[in-house]
């Protein structure tokens, strides 16, 4: 026997289900949106930001000089303890005090002139506790090899017989952070779990803006790239700013028919919304840039882009700050869209650098050795509005397995101290197509997993290719390389 339902909704297991609002065909909503998939598609990878990430906007340009100096002083003190423990140094001395014996000391590299740092203009600024924050000139004539830049915290050994200059005989490198480890049970679940990778490789694609040619704001290269990703369906798609570049000629000239927010919604958010519904198994990550004119925050570090407000970024997209550190399954990533490699290259003063480390590897090593995603101080003039009050967001919390530093320098992918360092280049360059990176990480070898906690050894498991028109650049020392199909960018 059937009964006519009463009330405003239907009860299903004591839960009230509201009736669906219907529209005439001519007024139908969300014409191209996929309401539901025939099967629930779970993501094979779990993406989680690390703790202490910058998540909210903050007031900048209010930092006091003494607060800024305290941050710099604390960095010297931190490395003082690390260096003493690592090299078994009993005591560090004030480098300004005259002595006829060799001493060991530590401080921050500075330049005593207005120009670029060179071997004749290097001074060492001490901490308040060690040398009252005073500076001493460094004579580096007896040091055969070094690579210094303003802001680098470094320990040195030498003699200051006059009290005016320290004659340096040795420079100590700071100890590196230990490589991360993961519990064996978690590692096996990530790599071989039936709902996770199930023994299959993990594919990660990394692209960095600008995403349109400098002759127009049509974003055709970005649209072609997204369509390519719809075919490839990577596990993770990492998109780095700038998305709407403040240096674009049409934006600088004001020759716009749309608002900046409308440009972003039309050419970035809309294609991403389509991609997220076409590829529900792909994790999408967005990291802003200091050059993003649609970002309300003009200081570095930056909070994430605004969500579903005026920019209408799909809810499926994980918005992260700049810089950021996050985990994809067991793999630790560190990302900064500020061109720290170019800035370090412009300010570095090297002398006969180590032959086993080329220029790009040396620049990436500075980031790892200083445990900071922007170790340069003072920052590049006119490029970075650095706010040291939130310095914790710039410091490396752990040694990353993968370090992503997009730069205007030549793209590269190389292993530095067991860390896979990547410069994916830019998706567009002026009026031509650019490059992006594709990384494939194989599962850990079951036979090599023995202890309760194991290192990830990503550099040995990864194949990374920077795709440039019809060529690829392979990551050296990769096992079982898998070469992806080259992509012709317009």
TrEMBL record:
One of its GO terms (biological process) is DNA replication initiation. Its main location: nucleus. Residues 204-414 form the DNA polymerase alpha/delta/epsilon subunit B domain. Coiled coil: none annotated. GO terms for molecular function: DNA binding. Pfam families: DNA_pol_E_B, OB_DPOA2. It is found in: Nucleus. Keywords: DNA replication, Nucleus. InterPro entries: DNA_pol_a/d/e_bsu, DNA_pol_alpha_bsu, OB_DPOA2. Belongs to the DNA polymerase alpha subunit B family. This is DNA polymerase alpha subunit B.
